[in-house]
User: What shape does this take?
Amino acid sequence: MHFRNDPERHSALIKELLDIFRERGFQILGADGVVDLPRARPLHNDGYGDQEDKAPDIYAYDTRRRCTIVGEAKTGNGDFETEHALTQYNVFLDQFDKTSGLQADFYIIVPASKVPEFNSLITHYIHPDYLESIVVVSSKTLVE
Assistant: This one.
């Protein structure tokens, strides 16, 4: 089901993004493959792509801004434009905090060399109204 052609690189990206979330003071509610943390729960798919709910790599909460933070790691090795990935982008950007009503911030970490490719894809694929909720993180450990 998941297209993860390089699980070690994917895990390294998750760990790097998790460290960034912790530095920013986000409350970590779930993460994929991280000891001592539950897996992130699948988020409701309101009719996008393959119609399946999608679990992010990291699910967190920003108590300062009172909004949900969704984190995803992509290696850039064929995992940017799969049906699964395109559905994830829409599902993750369609999350709103039940208390504040704010749209979730969607952080996606990719290797530094893949940032231009990802930015090109996301600006083409995602509705412009959603772009301000996307935070592209250039990996400092996976530079290539």
